[in-house]
Design brief:
The complex is a heterodimer of chains A (about 250) and B (about 220).
Chain A: E1 3-14, E2 17-28, E3 32-36, H1 43-50, E4 60-68, E5 71-72, H2 78-84, E6 85-88, H3 100-110, H4 116-129, H5 133-136, H6 150-162, E7 168-172, H7 180-193, E8 198-202, H8 206-212, E9 215-220, E10 223-229, H9 230-235, H10 240-246
Parallel strand pairs in A: 3-8, 3-9, 6-7, 7-8
Antiparallel strand pairs in A: 1-2, 1-4, 4-5, 9-10
Helix pairs in contact in A: 3-4, 3-6, 4-6, 6-7
Chain B: H1 4-37, H2 40-71, H3 75-109, H4 120-140, H5 143-173, H6 178-210, E1 212-213, E2 221-222
Antiparallel strand pairs in B: 1-2
Helix pairs in contact in B: 1-2, 1-3, 1-4, 2-3, 3-6, 4-5, 4-6, 5-6
The chains are: A alpha/beta (about 250), B mainly alpha (about 220).
Chain lengths: ~250, ~220
């Protein structure tokens, strides 16, 4: 199996507070990797380091290496990193004044694609990949992204991220604000997407991690305590702290 | 997100399966006593207690399934509930074997006493020790003790084979005692089955505590590996 993201001795700070204490992880390509742990354990900080979102906070800094496709993300322009490593957040954040079409096309236009035919094709393909096409194909240029339901908005954000053909998709609790049916659609979508790209998903929902991810990392107080196949983590973890967390004995 | 209520319910599940274990263990004890004492009233007690064991089996299963459905247990808690469901079935089968034994004993009571060349009480003593140790390993979560139970099963298998050989010879040499010998042979076989159930319970304890699947001699595989 190929490695999509290699993380070596990654440390991160907010001001003087060290939030990550030297993380090492190899994320398998075209698989889903879940990141779990209690609030404040550093899991969101970790994935935000993978596409240099962490450094957008002026108080924040990081150290160590993150390689995507073998290239150190700090040796690439940040814009390129975020094109190659897309991100979806907990709360759907479509551009509210843009149409559905323009939401999906926004990243492409930013990267210099203005050919109408190419844009049309990519928008349709991205919305199909995000399992939203059938629901919005008749209102693409008539309605704004904000007019959609929460679950649809989240899939729109996924389509927007997919439009620039990322290698890796980071998902920070992508379904925590959604109802069970919308959650199921996102989980089905993750299954489809990982045929073509690599997913790293932060989730508080351990059942969700066990449903969608082949690998799971358990974070605690800025450390990666255990990283293994998901079925191992959820049936027979090696570390007592992992077991105590997933069985609800602390957290 | 500590799950105090859930862990209280796991304790409750453990209490319920132990109550059932007590009934199954008692059924075997009474069946063996009924054999030794040729006592029809003890046979009757075993038969009438079977309904309570069956009822307890259903209740434990329902409770365990509810916990699986409602609590989505993980890791050692998941393994515990799975082990309980399987142990529950084994205990119910032990109750069935006790009934099988007393049915044979009731048959034997109707017949003249025959000096059979088999030591059923000695075999029963070892089988009861296996049940006791299997249940103790469950109560104490002790996989080492459970391993001893697995080892003890070989001796019961040997005793069962020996009973088969000696009783077969007896039936040929003394046809008048053939029916009694056949009953004793069945009882030996029932006890051997009880030992198998004790072995299953011990395997489930090892799975619960260590996540290791040791069934069918597979001693090195672990859940999730």
């Amino acid at each position: 199996m190929a490695t999509a993201v290699e993380v070596h001795d990654l440390k991160a700070w907010f001001g003087k507070t060290e939030a990550l204490h030297g993380i090492n992880m190899a994320v398998e390509a075209k698989h889903a990797t879940a990141v779990i742990g209690p609030s404040g354990c550093g899991k969101s900080t970790f994935i935000r380091c993978l596409n240099r979102m962490h450094e957008t906070n002026p108080e924040a800094k990081s150290e160590g290496t993150v390689r995507v496709g073998g290239v150190d993300v700090y040796e690439m322009p940040a814009v390129d990193v975020r094109r190659r490593v897309g991100m979806v957040f907990q709360k759907p954040n479509p551009f509210p004044t843009m149409t559905i079409y323009d939401n999906v096309a926004a990243g492409l236009k930013l990267n210099g694609t203005h050919n109408r035919k190419i844009l049309d094709d990519i928008v349709e393909h991205s919305l199909q990949q995000a399992a939203l096409w059938d629901e919005v194909k008749d209102i693409l240029k008539k309605q704004s992204g904000a007019s959609l339901s929460g679950g649809q908005q989240q899939r729109l954000c996924i389509a927007r991220a997919l439009a620039v053909s990322p290698e890796v998709m980071l998902m920070d609790e992508p379904a925590s604000a959604l109802d069970p049916i919308s959650t199921a659609k996102i989980e089905d979508l993750i299954f489809e997407l990982k045929q073509k790209l690599t997913i790293v998903i932060v989730t508080h929902n351990m059942q969700q991690a066990s449903r969608v991810a082949e690998f799971t990392g358990f974070f605690l107080m800025g450390n990666l305590i255990e990283f293994d196949k998901t079925e191992k983590i959820f049936t027979n973890p090696s570390d007592k702290r992992t077991e105590d967390y997933i069985t609800g004995r602390f957290g | 997100m500590t799950r105090i209520r859930f862990h209280q319910e796991l304790d409750e599940l453990k209490h319920r399966i132990l109550a059932m274990a007590g009934m199954a263990e008692q059924a075997i004890d009474l069946a063996v006593q009924a054999y030794s004492q040729r006592d029809p009233s003890l046979c009757q007690r075993v038969i009438s207690n079977e309904a309570a064991i069956n009822r307890a089996e259903r209740e434990v299963d329902e409770f365990a399934i509810d916990l699986l459905a409602m609590q989505q247990p993980m890791a050692i808690d998941l393994r515990f509930i799975l082990a309980v469901i399987k142990i529950n079935a084994d205990l119910e089968r032990i109750g069935d074997q006790a009934v099988n034994i007393v049915q044979r004993v009731m048959n034997m009571i109707e017949l003249p006493v025959s000096e059979l060349p088999v030591d059923i009480p000695a075999m029963a003593t070892r089988v009861r020790a296996m049940i006791r140790d299997a249940l103790r390993s469950f109560i104490e979560g002790d996989p080492e003790l459970a391993r001893h139970v697995l080892e003890a099963d070989d001796e019961i298998d040997r005793m069962n084979h020996e009973a088969f050989a000696t009783l077969s010879g007896f039936m040929q040499s003394q046809p008048n005692g053939a029916v009694q010998a056949l009953d004793a042979l069945s009882i030996a076989r029932n006890l051997e089955r009880v030992a198998d159930h004790a072995t299953n319970i011990a395997e489930d304890v090892i799975f619960w505590i260590r996540g290791a699947d040791v069934r069918h001699g597979a001693g090195h595989q672990t859940a999730g590996s």
